[in-house]
Amino acid sequence: MTKTARFPNAQPPATDKRPVVDTHHGVSRTDEYAWLRAENWQQMFRDPSLLAADIRAHLEAENAYQADMMADTEALQKTLFAEMRGRIKEDDSSVPMQDGPYAYGTSFKTGGEQPRFFRTPRDGGAEDILLDGDAEADGHAYFRIGGADHAPGHDKLLWGYDDKGSEFYSLKVRDLAGRSDLADIVPDTGGGGVWSAAGDGFFYTRLDENHRPSKVLFHRLGDAPEADRLVYEDLDPGFFMNVGGTRTNDWVFIAVNDHETSEYHVLPTGDPDAAPKLVRARETGVQYELEEGGEEFFILTNLGDAKDFRIMSAPAADPREQNWREVVPHEPGRLILSVMAFERHLVRLERKDGLPRIVIRERASGDEHMIVFEEEAYSLGLVGSLEYDTDIIRFSYSSMTTPAQVFDYDMATRERTLRKTQEVPSGHDPDAYVTRRLMAPSDDGELVPVSILYRRDTPLDGSAPCLLYGYGSYGIAIPASFNTNCLSLVDRGFVYAIAHIRGGKDKGFAWYEDGKRQQKANTFKDFIAAARHLVAEGFTAHDRIVAQGGSAGGMLMGAVANMAPEAFGGIIAEVPFVDVLATMLDETLPLTPPEWPEWGNPLASAEDYATIAAYSPYDNVGAHDYPPILAVAGLTDPRVTYWEPAKWVARLRERKSGHDPVLFRINMDAGHAGASGRFSRLEEIAYSYAFALKVTGHS
Description:
Radius of gyration: 25 Å
Shape: globular
Helix content: 10-25%
Distance between the termini: 13 Å
CATH superfamily of the largest domain: Alpha/Beta hydrolase fold, catalytic domain
CATH class of the largest domain: Alpha Beta
CATH architecture of the largest domain: 3-Layer(aba) Sandwich
Strand order of the largest sheet: 30-31-33-32-34-35-36-37
Largest sheet: 8 strands, mixed
């Protein structure tokens, strides 16, 4: 059976051509499908009903086409959904975390889509529901809670929600005595805030019309949002900004950063009218993060050519650089990922030899010890604590075969207490599966780690299908963690693989640097190398590999489709960043100026223009025999705008040879993260997995 025989012989929607020409650095390019970008996109993100009728009609036609092409998988999708749902403990609950007289946590009720926020007495007792996400979401097609934070006096709850998918969050304050929200509603925020010490107001970031957090304000309870005090404003559109607090509730940290440079300002929570103090002025390429430490701050930084970072300290009363002193020196090859400070201990999460580890340091003596793990490959998360004066921290652990575990760890006695193991109600036998880590040689000789999972009875003779996942941007490392969803493929004979390609920090900071800007092509070559190595080692065959990636990983999908379409039997590109050149040329878009350090600035640099133009998926679609491609997007996505995949799909159909289809599915009620409910999100995953099964002949 040929690949084309698996899909109906239906015609995709015709896309009008309305050519627009732009010229930069003496180079002209024509975009026939630029009209798919809504001229009123800022307003449309807030109110999707404002989308132009011709664009809406086109997107709805795309949805109708993909539904027809995937109609024969509807039963399979329902089966996959039921399987994945069956692996979720529906009435699941986190382990409550102690803070003062209470312990706080989140839970779900059976059948519930949204989390509930609860607390219990400190040492245990009945759950007291503070915020019921399902009740708040009632009547909304989309609803996502940005978070919830209790006031220092435990009498109020600050919480945020987005009901469009556009990531413009509104903030509300709940009176925990009466369980009712105050009249205060603060719109267009980043989704969270920091309470004042007195609990009479909160600091937050305000988003402008281009979705940039350009202001930090203080809202005093009872005041109109229009009267909120401007605490700090940054007019540089190339920087993100957020506010954070401390476990002691003493400080507000205002963090200003792009992908390679950072700057902090601090002010006391006890004096909301104080002017923020600058810690160290931004300097291109210098990164640092602040962490509380009582009378001192700890600073995680790459200052001083510390590529893999070191830890400094400074007095909280005057944390300027001239007062910094080294606590943990830089060690090449040991990447320090994060640091948390407590009254008697300093805790850091670091990665060495490709694996994460937790190191505990006694602040008084400087003595250190590590928390040790036995498996060869695993995922580790540092949860920490809500309290500062404690010896107990929390961390999470899993591997591709081991369900997630939550431990409390006594830093003084070194006692480890298992608090929770992820339950798989439908059952899970770790011994039925095998996880391995391969090293795939890339074209320049670099060895690319590839984590794989398969059933022990899967034949390794090249006949098994494979889902190969990749990301490779922003320094984000993809952990080899437990994933109940992928078991639906693995149990059907798939090899599930993660390519830890350059552009992430999986092998240290240099691994990231060697996969960005002028070196971006390494990201794509590494992924192709991973696919070829899996074939060479007998795990699969090229026409049985389905590649998958989302966002910047969706850009990866577009690039490898252009560079090596013969290496893949199918491609799934979720919210794909495929129109890289046009987006980086448009400084009005929400994320463009802050993204220039990652990709380059093609407006200012002819070299950057040429670099991006050489790989931008939309600009490099050719007359190739592409495999079946699925693109998935959200209408109100401010990170990867819907028109990027819409244009890419149209151009693929126009220019490609061969007969394999290109499908485009757009959620008209969601943004970058897809559906907001935990089960509705599973429906989207089931759809993508059904596509993977279909193109490999398993539907």
